[in-house]
Hints:
- By secondary structure, this protein is mostly helical.
- It is built from 3 helices and no strands.
- Helix 1 (about 25-40) runs antiparallel to helix 2 (about 45-65).
- The relative contact order is 0.18.
Amino acid sequence: MSYPPPPQGHHEYYLPPPPPQRxxxxxxxxxxxxxxxxxxxxxxxxxxxxxxxxxAISLKEIRRTYEEGRGMAIAGLVCGIVGTLIYAILIxxxxxxxxxxxxx
Length: 104
């Protein structure tokens, strides 16, 4: 299938498509670490804290540089907070049980 040549009388200029937007790497890392903070036991607490920090940094960078990845940064922030809270609550419960067993 061949296309007809463009008309010779018209001098139209076609702009190339814009380059694809870059995705912020910190937002990808925060999302991955946020998901891992929920899934991986014990170390998930640390992964959640790192995910929260990376998400906050990437949201500031995205606002400044107009990069893509805002949704991933928000997902990393939410998952990091949830993972950190889950394991913080588990650590507190474990400490309370140990304290009660020690006093018993």
